[in-house]
Design goal:
18 strands; 41% helix; globular; eight-stranded mixed β-sheet; 548 residues; 18 helices; single chain; 14% strand
């Protein structure tokens, strides 16, 4: 038997699967007593969510065809064949050419000493032993995008990293050489778990200067900072420190998918709050708080990922008032705040919060977007009890962050090199932003619309109604270009949100790659538009592009 999913069929996928399995069971294959594949394993083989398989199995259980049995998994209970003989898993048919219970390792054959009998010993059933944590990362659309991104011929408009050709290589080389000459042996020693003390001082000073640029005045103490291995580790440590399974976390929708994955892995339930052009719709959050009390509020108020929006000042104040009234901590994720090209800088939530003497905001940032991601240096800033608990949690993860990278970043702050680098990229990046917008306008016309962010590294785009992201992904892959699918950034994607949205990075590709990437993407979009309305585009002429 071969399970075939017809994704364009009006029949829900879980019913397609249950109907085919039902017919197979009624036909006696697999027979009574046979084990069905674990839900996670079958979901991966078929390229669907685990919930889809759960629902399919529930349908079969309701029909009295299968049953969950302790110690054995899900077992067929329909049929008259001998159960002991039927329990042989080799009787289960292959799905997509692969045995559903095969975890990828070959079995081991061996002879008994008398040579008369052979035994077959299976490898450990790893797929059945893994926890459910990795299920939160099983996003088929995102997985497809990542697979395509690995191809050397593909232009990557999905990956959120800065421009490699602007990396300050010479400055880094000089800093490393000097550091190794002056303190070579100490660089190979442990640093305090909280971070290299001079770097913590520089980060505190940086936050004070950024507040001053926005017209605010705060004092940040070095002991209010812990250095982490990038903001992703920071999110993980905060989730492990603050979240218990079942806790509710309020997040923007759309939001940074890495944060959503971390919170879900910690067992949190996510409460999406929609955004608009002024960021999180705080009035909607206010309506929900009396009935639903989240444990945390997570937000990217400045150049939000993926939308690029900036939370308006009035909403920042209202959000902080709500957090204080209901005593809910706020995690402010701010990786892009220094990448501002237009408009006036607004004080961070943490700055406003500290100025008012509250301490309800936990601030998280990183140098990965300002400099480059390879150092993996980020930091968390908060009140002393938070920093102490995060530090204890960090000791369970990695004891301390890379000493050499910390000293190099510290030198960038001390010598003013970070300011010089930011001045460079803040001249180049808006040119690339505008170049991408113009390329989209010329090549795709009204088939796609995009925002024009005042900073950050992304364009958030809306496809013409009817052109779905899941249809565009394979077309774009054929043209050799990839983007980030909008559905992946919505924690409530099942509602249909994000199916016409895509995120494009304008900092990673150079000018020629940017132009060619938008050309390829536009060809893919136009092809889908032609299929939707062939008559409207019958006379259009476009260059032929090879399928790759």
């Amino acid at each position: 038997m071969h399970v075939v999913i017809e994704r364009t069929s009006p029949t829900p996928i879980y019913l397609q699967i249950s109907q085919q399995l039902r017919q197979s069971i009624l036909d006696g294959e697999p027979p009574s007593g046979a084990k069905l594949p674990p839900e996670r394993r079958l979901a991966k083989l078929l390229g669907v969510n685990r919930t889809t398989i759960v629902n399919a199995y529930r349908e079969l259980a309701a029909d009295g065809l299968i049953s969950g049995q302790v110690g054995r998994g899900t077992v067929v209970i329909f049929g008259a064949r001998d159960a002991d003989a039927a329990a042989d898993v080799t009787a289960w048919p292959r799905v997509n050419g692969q045995h559903p219970l095969d975890n990828g390792a070959s079995t081991l054959d061996g002879d008994f000493n008398d040579g008369s009998t052979r035994s077959r010993q299976s490898s450990v059933p790893w797929a059945q032993l893994f926890t459910a944590v990795t299920d939160v990362m099983d996003d088929p659309l995102l997985r497809d995008a990542m697979t395509v991104s690995a191809r050397p011929d593909v232009i990557r408009l999905a990956t959120g990293i800065p421009a490699p050709e602007l990396y300050p290589i010479d400055a880094i080389r000089q800093i490393f050489d000097q550091a190794l000459d002056n303190a070579g042996s100490t660089l190979l020693q442990h640093t305090p778990t909280e971070g290299y003390p001079p770097l913590r001082e520089q980060l505190a000073g940086w936050m004070e200067r950024q507040a001053a640029i926005a017209g605010a005045s705060v004092v940040v103490e070095p002991n209010q900072i812990v250095v982490v291995a990038g903001s992703q580790q920071g999110l993980y440590l905060l989730a492990r420190t603050l979240i218990d399974p079942g806790d509710l976390v309020a997040v923007e929708s759309p939001t940074y998918l890495g944060a959503a994955q971390v919170f879900r892995a910690a067992g949190a339930r996510l409460m999406p709050i929609p955004i608009d052009g002024d960021g999180m719709q705080v009035d909607l959050l206010q309506d929900l708080l009396p009935r639903r009390r989240p444990k945390l509020i997570y937000t990217l108020p400045t150049f939000q990922n993926p939308s690029g929006t900036v939370m308006a000042m009035g909403r920042r104040l209202r959000l902080l008032d709500l957090a204080a009234r209901y005593q809910i901590p706020v995690i402010e994720d701010d990786p892009y705040g220094a990448l501002r090209y237009d408009g006036r800088a607004l004080p961070t939530l943490a700055t406003i919060d500290r100025a008012e003497g509250r301490g309800n905001v936990i601030y998280l940032s990183t140098v990965s977007k300002m400099l480059f991601p390879g150092f993996r240096i980020g930091w968390i800033s908060g009140v002393k009890p938070v920093i102490e608990q995060v530090t204890l949690m960090k000791q369970l993860v990695d004891l301390d962050t890379n000493a050499l990278a910390q000293r190099a970043v510290c030198a960038f702050f001390e010598r003013g090199l970070l300011d010089e680098h930011l001045a460079l990229v803040n001249r180049v990046y808006p040119q690339r932003r505008d170049r991408m917008l113009e390329a989209l306008r010329q090549r795709a016309g009204d088939l796609i619309s995009a925002n024009r962010p005042d900073g950050g590294i992304y364009l958030w785009c809306r496809l013409n109604e009817g052109i779905r992201v899941r249809d565009l992904l394979p077309e774009a892959a054929r043209e050799g270009v990839i983007f980030a699918p909008g559905e992946s950034f919505h924690v409530d994607a099942a509602s249909g949100r994000g199916r016409f949205d895509i995120r494009l990075n304008f900092t990673l590709p150079n000018d020629s790659e940017l132009d060619e990437g938008i050309r390829r993407l536009s060809v893919a979009i136009q092809r889908l538009a032609d299929r939707l309305d062939p008559a409207a585009h019958a006379s259009a002429t476009r260059p032929l592009t090879p399928i790759v």
